[in-house]
Design goal:
The complex is a heterodimer of chains A (332) and B (156). By secondary structure, chain A is of the alpha/beta class. Chain A contains 13 helices and 13 strands. The longest helix of chain A is centred in the C-terminal third of the chain and has 18 residues, at 314-331. Chain B has two domains: 2-78, 2-Layer Sandwich (Alpha-Beta Plaits), CATH 3.30.70; 82-154, 2-Layer Sandwich (Alpha-Beta Plaits). Classes of the chains: A alpha/beta (332), B alpha+beta (156).
């Protein structure tokens, strides 16, 4: 299988490294697996025989790779001309119009090229369109990394809860706000101080509003609602309250009664993101940058998944999605 | 519908069987029965029953039948299942107004105010409401807190 990595930032680079490290495992499923192209906003490298990923990981800029570099060459052009089988779309998230990732996914799917992505933007903006396009062109669109990072949520529902009807999903879907609220809970710091510390540790988005006002969590609620609960939700359907108004006094008052305040995304009849009191003995009560998702179904009743929701762990979800496509294609 | 039915039965053999007959006749299903023999008073023993009747009408008929048999009724009332919810409110709000506001059928059973370190008050409330109307009560409180520009944090 010939693979493209679109977007060569933090995630794209990490994926290239993991592809090299896990090559033996990947080749067990597909001995012809190779990455034939990598692009960023400035250009791309393309080699139909397969790129040398170790060499690529050593260069600061794609242009330094030299062989097969096309300065100013667009990702769209690379997808169109490369005859790839699978595109990993890892450009930065844009929740306003989903671009540029949305266009790249449309181009790939309409050519029956499988897409694996951790990019929330296109799925928030055009979930139905993209899944319909994948279905029509008989290719896969997998997006495990978009919600709760490395936590195998969509795979679990797809593979292990096939017969269950999902009644309610709730969860801590943003690690940054969980870090801030955990600091306030354990160290009795103010919201402002905890936010500053999160920013210094580099775990907030450039615009911290994206985390603390619940926008990121709301995006994940939309994806979960559409993908798992089969809704047709949009971002504006989510009733959203962030954690700016949560004071240290409130956190302490909750703690005295054996509750922790957590930013919880809920998908039931209504879609909501809001700070909630979580009993300290509830499985959703996890701390630090951890994410947790609680599924309520008609048969399994309650299932809770806990894990890391962002950063380098996300590569686990992307790799598993890629392996899922390889395995399905081999079976076919 | 579940009812708490407490009878005063004469402390003589056969009285309980006699009292149960009208309950069965009127469609009552006995959920529990406590024969409080340790509390006899002037030859009478209290018997507490929880009975599931199809309607209030069935209970009324049973009570009338029991009275005509000469059985004294100490208590006959519907058991309303209640749920307790904990909430926190943060904001520059009028606490007195909040406490005095009647929220659906809910009662405030717990109230704690934190020592304020800012001009925003922080209150923890424990509400008790009939289970079937607890969501309505929460909606009402949500509306009130919006009016007061306060942040309502409810439990999951």
């Amino acid at each position: 299988m010939k693979v493209l990595i679109i977007g060569f930032g933090f995630i794209g680079r990490d994926l290239a490294r993991v592809f090299e490290e896990k090559l033996a495992l990947i080749k067990q499923i597909d001995k012809d697996f190779r990455v034939i192209g990598v692009s960023n906003s400035r250009g791309y490298v393309y080699d139909k025989g397969g790129l040398d990923l170790w060499k690529l990981l050593k260069v600061g800029e794609l242009s330094e790779y030299r062989k097969g570099y096309r300065s100013g060459g667009s990702s769209a052009e690379l997808i169109e001309k490369s005859a790839a089988d699978l595109v990993v779309e890892a450009t930065p998230t844009n929740i306003k119009d989903g671009e540029p990732g949305l266009s790249f996914m449309r181009i790939a799917l309409s050519r029956s090229i499988h897409v694996v992505t951790p990019n929330k933007g296109p799925l928030v903006v055009a979930f139905k369109e993209l899944t319909a396009l994948a279905e029509k062109n008989e290719c896969e669109l997998l997006y495990e990394g978009t919600v709760a990072g490395a936590v195998p949520l969509f795979s679990l529902v797809r593979e292990c809860l096939r017969g269950d009807r999902l009644l309610r999903i709730s969860g801590i879907l943003n690690g940054t706000t969980n870090y801030i609220l955990s600091k306030m809970y354990f160290e009795e710091t103010s919201f402002e101080l905890a936010l500053k510390e999160a920013q210094e540790r580099g775990i907030t988005e450039r615009d911290s509003s994206y985390d603390v006002d619940g926008i990121d969590a709301a995006c994940k609620v939309v994806i979960l609602a559409n993908a798992i609960m089969k809704r047709e939700a949009r971002l504006e359907d989510v009733e959203r309250t962030g954690i700016r108004g949560v004071t240290q006094e409130a956190v302490s008052l909750a703690k005295k009664s054996n509750y922790a305040i957590k930013l919880i995304g809920t998908i039931e009849r209504e879609l909501e993101v809001a700070p909630k009191l979580v009993p300290t003995n509830h499985p959703l009560c996890v701390h630090g940058t951890l994410n947790a998702v609680h599924l309520e179904t008609d048969l399994a009743k309650e299932v809770t998944l806990v894990g890391y929701g962002a950063g380098k762990e996300t590569v686990s979800a992307i790799l598993n999605d890629v392996l899922t496509v390889l395995r399905k294609r081999r079976k076919a | 519908m579940k009812f708490d039915l407490t009878l005063a039965l004469a402390d003589r053999p056969g009285q309980l069987v006699r009292a149960l007959e009208p309950i069965a006749k009127n469609g009552g299903n006995i959920v529990s029965i406590i024969h409080e023999r340790e509390k006899p008073a002037e030859g009478y023993v209290p018997v507490s029953l929880v009975v599931d009747f199809p309607s209030k009408q069935n209970l009324r008929r049973t009570v009338n039948d029991l009275r005509s048999l000469g059985v004294s009724i100490i208590k006959s009332e519907e058991i309303v299942e209640t749920t307790r919810v904990t909430l926190i409110l943060i904001g520059k709000m009028d606490l007195k107004k909040l406490v005095e506001t009647r929220i659906e059928d809910a009662r405030i059973v717990g109230f704690e105010v934190s020592t304020p370190t800012s001009n925003e008050a922080c209150v923890k409330l424990e509400l008790e409401a009939p289970t079937e109307s607890v969501n309505k009560a929460l909606e009402e409180l949500k509306r009130l807190s919006k009016e007061e520009n306060a942040l309502l944090i409810s439990s999951i």
